[in-house]
Amino acid sequence: MPFCLRRAFSLLGLCAVLSAQTPPGTGTVQGDVTDGVTHKPIAGARVKLQAGERILFTRCDENGRFQLAEVAMGSYAVAADRPGYSPATGQPPSYARLSPDKTLAEVHVILQPYSVISGRVVDSAGVPVEGAFIELLELRPIDPNRRPDFALSASRAVLGDRQLVVSYSTRTNDLGQYRFARHPAGSYYVCAHPATYPDSRDETERATYYPRTLRATDAKPVAVAAGQEHPDIDIQLIRQAGVRVSGRVIEPVDSPKARSILVRRSIVVTPSDAPLLGAGVMPGFDEKGAFDLKDLLPGRYVIEAATTDQTDFGNPRTLLAGRRTIDVGDKDVDGVEIAMQPPFDIQGAVVFGENCPAVPVSILPRAESRLGNVAQQDIAGAGSFTLPGLIQGKYTLAIVPRPSRTSAAYRYSVASATLGDREVLQNGFELTGQPPGALRISIACGAQPAAQGVAR
Amino acid sequence: MKPLLLALLAAPLALAQVSNPEPASLSIEGTLTDQLSGAPIAGGRIVLDEHYPGRTLAYSDAAGHFQFDSLRPGAHHLLARRTGYLQASQLAVLYSGRNSPAVRIALTPQAVIAGTVEDQDGFPVAEASIIVFTRSAGGELVSASRGGVTTDDHGRFRAAGLASGSYYLHVQPGLAGNWDARYTDVYYPAALKFEDAEAIQTTSGQERSGIVVRLQISAGVRVQGRVALPPGFAIQHGGGRAQVSLTSAGIAGFARTTNAMVADDGSFTFNHVQPGKYQLVPVLPPPYGRGFTTGPAGAVEPNLEVGAADISGIALNVEDTMPVDLPGKVVFAAGVQPEPVIVLLTQRNSVQAQTASQEDGSFVLRAVPPGKYYLSANATAGSLRGVSARLGEADLPYGALELKGPNPGSLVITMSSAFGTVQGVIVDAAGQPVSGQYALFHAVKPGLLPPAPGKTDPAGHFWAGLPPGDYRVWPAAAVPADYRFGGSDAPPGQGQLVTIVEGPNPPLRLVLAAVK
Q1: In this structure, are B85 and B158 located in the same domain?
Q2: Confidence (pLDDT) at A11
Q3: Model confidence over B237-274: pLDDT tens digits?
Q4: Are residues B409 and B437 in the same domain?
Q5: Distance (Å, whole) CA B345 – CA A17
Q6: pLDDT level of residue B13 (50, 70, 90 thresholds)
Q7: Is the per-residue pLDDT at B335 higher than 90?
Q8: Is the pLDDT of residue A13 over 60?
Q9: Taking CA atoms, what residue in B is nearest to A182?
Q10: CATH code, B79
Q11: Tens-digit pLDDT profile for residues A376-385
């Protein structure tokens, strides 16, 4: 077998002899594969050389060394693989280059052992939960442009100035076991969601963070180093009955009339300091304005309401919107009133710096609220515009000058954006019950060719 | 169990306990046991009246005991599930002023197939996906695994929730394909073709562990061709680029699609294509995603047969076909409060056009390319359903319609809230209830809705919801592939004619023909 031959040569240290015997136009690639943590050779690792569609394979001997002879000239990406390691090409990727001047290439590939977090999920009766959805979460800086994901996800729990985002997810098997492997070392939170088989769903069973808490603030991160395994990150799902919060939205006397018969009356509940929402909270309010939110756990929530009409699919128009913050304890809450008001239309203007030819500008306000839908406005050049239908809440602003090829002699950037007398370019703005001022956008340009300026 | 069954069949009971005016003072108690050992099962979940507003969940205690209180007379459905067992359901009938005798639900322990997937180096293969399938009583290959089964980083897999039976494994290469793109799908133990697959036998409560699947390298062949676009179309448009998708017929409905980018000169290449039948379709970037065809519109037949040799010179000529606007009107059955209605045209299970009706019931489905479609209509809220439809003067049985030419005519869709429900039991020739069988319905006068088949639970019971009308109903071991589109009718001499009225209907008793 060629593999045995290569190994024998390598062991005997006959590389020099080999390269001397190499046929013209070919060379020898040799090297080793080592563990990125222990720096020890990895015996039995397999190695792949790839140049376009030309692929060669070999394996390391017990000293972690490999050698491939009679390899055609070229530049090869070298990858290695071995169970227990991320099959990366090493960091940075390794290359072997063979040329008539250099017929022997030596490559060192480093493989990082991956870490493992695994455990078992049981229900309140101690029975393994099959099909539980498990998320491995990491703390990341809050991204204002990232909207809340679907209600089941733990990805928006905020801890101080950071938020939990899902890095990996999986499901438990019939023994209740889950296993996250092949992910980098780090500090992770683990959240288990009840199994989603609808027929045996227990509505009082809650998404539970490791070690056993409903609130992200009480969750304990699991720190795992490369090559380390945490096999006992077990979670018992918590059962807790929720309470009911009911009330009504108060519409102004002179409410705008819907143009379409497809009117949607939506309520969105967002935990601001509360456990994750259960699957049961998908409410709206009725024609009389009454709403009934079932199954909330103690904590602080923001409740938002909106009436939209859909004259066209994908292009809803907000007629009325309102929001308020409520604190929920362990008893039902009744009579919550949410004052609705028409959304704001923000008037604005784009001005260009001196000697800057006007170019088209795209303006996109992004609402933090899932109920906020504002269409992108494309302005032909300098002049006024209207951002219609902004509801209360926080917004960030994306402003993109779009110079055409002919005016690309200038680099365009957004110099400032003010709403009323406040600068809103960096941090966005928050609309409260008061009408906002005008939005004034200044575009500057410099005289060097460049890509489009992008500002938030 | 038997007395309850007979009670159900003896008389048309009012099953809608929701509207029963009698006080809720009755209770059901019972025990959950292991079918094989007879031992009580603790921590089981028993769901009462799963599909009704009074849905309640109870857990079995250490003695396997469970109880539901404050119930009204009528038939109550019990569903029991516990990890490690197959689920079971049972009916309990409560008569006025009398609690039911203790219910005993026996759960059958699941069978498990567990093992590892290895590549040719003997390395474990992570993220290999495994489809467990079996032959249905009708002889078709059907999926048997609950959810997706995927190997972990050690190449290990567990396919749980299986009944006693005979199973095949179809394994996709997962990360082995990253190491060497020539790794291809295999059937257990290491077969490239289904004919060479080996079946794995399981019995209830058994764990077949140590099953090793060895992935195979098979270079396959290269498939090359060129896409020709009509004038004005671009390979690259916006952020998107034209692609060609290659979809294998696959087994048991598990089609597998790979995509190849189209180069600037229109050429495309697929490497490592295994022998078999494929469908080759160009996919254009928006806004060209619709309004074009290649050859016969809506063709779904495999159009490429791959053998042992490379294939080149395939020409995919994209034609720019003119989409049409399809106007229509929604009318409401007598006594029905009009509501906004969503009208959909689907093709190969994906929505091709949708719109909502206006206040006067009118709608227009815009820019629909020519082709064959299925029409459906549903109210945005409530229980209104489209029950019949016409295009021009032609009725559209099961919503099937074909659009060709510039003047397709106008749609009329009738909406109704009338809906009938029927329960029943399927028994064999000896009168024993049979589980896993289907009650199939064929509308004498087909409407828009295909009648959903009823499937029997372990007690042989089925439930079906249908628009009112006359049906032929018959029992069968499997649902024929063309059933959904009204293509199947009762075998000669087997259909039982029933008239379904709005609301609950008298229970049915269907007898399976004796196996010859």
Answers
A1: no
A2: 41
A3: 766 788 888 888 666 556 678 889 999 898 999 988 88
A4: no
A5: 72
A6: very low
A7: no
A8: no
A9: B153
A10: 2.60.40.10
A11: 778 887 888 8
CATH number of the domain to which B192 belongs = 2.60.40.1120
- In this model, does residue A1 exceed pLDDT 50? no
Within this chain, do residues B307 and B251 fall inside the same structural domain, yes or no?
yes
B412 and B431 within one domain: no
Residue B86: give the domain boundaries: 2-107
CB atoms within 10 A of CB A108: 11
In whole angstroms, give the CA distance from residue B463 to residue B75.
13
Q: How many CB atoms lie within 10 A of CB B156?
A: 16
- Assign A146 a pLDDT band (cuts: 50, 70, 90): low
Q: How many domains does chain B have?
A: 5
Q: How large is the average pLDDT for residues B106-119?
A: 96
pLDDT computed for residue A135 by the predictor:
92
Å between A57 CA and nearest CA of chain B:
9
Interface-testing mutation among A56, A129, A196, A199, with chain B (most B C-beta atoms within 10 A): A199
Structural domain ending residue among the three candidates B107, B137, B163: B107
Are residues B6 and B102 located together in one domain of the fold? yes
Angle at B350 between CA B345 and CA B355, to 5 degrees: 35
User: Taking an 8 Å Cβ-Cβ cutoff, which residues of chain A contact chain B?
Assistant: 46, 48, 53, 55, 57, 59, 79, 81-84, 87, 114, 116, 123, 125-131, 171, 173-176, 179, 181-182, 197, 199-203, 260-262, 310, 313
Question: Is A262–B340 a contact, with Cβ atoms under 8 angstroms apart?
Answer: yes
Per-residue pLDDT at A370 exceeds 50? yes
Q: Report how many Cβ contacts below 8 Å link chain A to chain B.
A: 89
**Residues in B touching A48 (Cβ below 8 Å):** 179-180
Q: How far is B358 from chain A (nearest CA, A)?
A: 7
User: What HEC string does A138-195 produce?
Assistant: EEEECCCCCCCCCCCCCCCCEECCEEEEEEEEEECCCCCEEEEEEECCEEEEEEEECC
Distance CA B434, CA B436 (A): 7
Instruction: Kindly report the number of other CB atoms within 10 A of residue A456's CB atom.
Output: 17
β A333-339/A243-250 pair status: parallel
Q: Both tokens of residue B193? A: 């073709």
Contact residues, chain B, for A179 at CB < 8 Å: 152-153
Pairing of strands B65-71, B103-107: unpaired
Question: By a Cβ cutoff of 8 Å, what residues of chain B touch chain A?
Answer: 42-45, 47, 50, 57, 59, 79, 81-84, 87, 110, 112, 121, 123-124, 126, 146-147, 152-154, 158, 160-161, 175, 178-180, 271, 340, 354-359, 380
Work out the pLDDT band at B31, boundaries 50, 70, 90: very high
Kindly report the number of other CB atoms within 10 A of residue A333's CB atom: 16
The SS3 assignment for B412 reads strand
Q: Are B213 and B128 in a shared domain?
A: yes
The C-alpha of B499 sits at a distance from chain A's nearest C-alpha, in angstroms, of 30
**B503 and B489 within one domain:** yes
**pTM of the full structure:** 0.70
Q: Which of A1, A82, A127 is the best mutation test for B, with the most CBs of B within 10 A?
A: A127
Residues B64 and B33 in one domain: yes
Q: Which domains does chain A have, with CATH numbers?
A: 2-111 (2.60.40.10), 115-239 (2.60.40.1120), 243-339 (2.60.40), 344-446 (2.60.40.10)
Phi and psi at residue B485, to the nearest 5°? -105, 25
Of the three residues B356, B390, B416, the one that is the final residue of a domain is B416
Res. B369 pLDDT band, cuts 50 70 90 = confident
Cβ-defined contact of A202 to B355 (cutoff 8 Å): no
Q: Is residue B516 part of a domain?
A: no
Q: Does B126 contact A127 at a Cβ distance shorter than 8 Å?
A: no
Q: Is the pLDDT of residue A259 over 70?
A: no
* Position B345 pLDDT exceeds 60: yes
